[in-house]
Amino acid sequence: MAYVLQVDFTMDGPFGDEMANAFADLAESINKEEGFLWKIWTESPETNEAGGIYIFETKETAGKYMEMHTKRLAGFGITDVNAKVFAINSKLTAITNGPVK
């Protein structure tokens, strides 16, 4: 069963293309994390928020990444982090065309 890691936090930017350029190396490094399957990057310049929806193979790998990433964000001065791990209901997700099995 796959697991979702939902993360959001307050951030002053960059957003859009600037964010894509600034965080390209970070995105590449995430691909190498144990149990990582995929991520959707989220951003809201209007409310100065960013984050992502991650999918991991197991609850353990999602939790391990969440702990490491929260510490990494703190190193960037981002301490108001909302991070949660959820199980995926694969039967309902399949009905709504979710790309998770």
Automatic annotation (TrEMBL):
<dbReference type="InterPro" id="IPR011008">
    <property type="entry name" value="Dimeric_a/b-barrel"/>
</dbReference>
<protein>
    <submittedName>
        <fullName>Monooxygenase</fullName>
    </submittedName>
</protein>
<dbReference type="GO" id="GO:0004497">
    <property type="term" value="F:monooxygenase activity"/>
</dbReference>
<keyword id="KW-0503">Monooxygenase</keyword>
<dbReference type="InterPro" id="IPR014910">
    <property type="entry name" value="YdhR"/>
</dbReference>
<keyword id="KW-0560">Oxidoreductase</keyword>
<dbReference type="Pfam" id="PF08803">
    <property type="entry name" value="ydhR"/>
</dbReference>
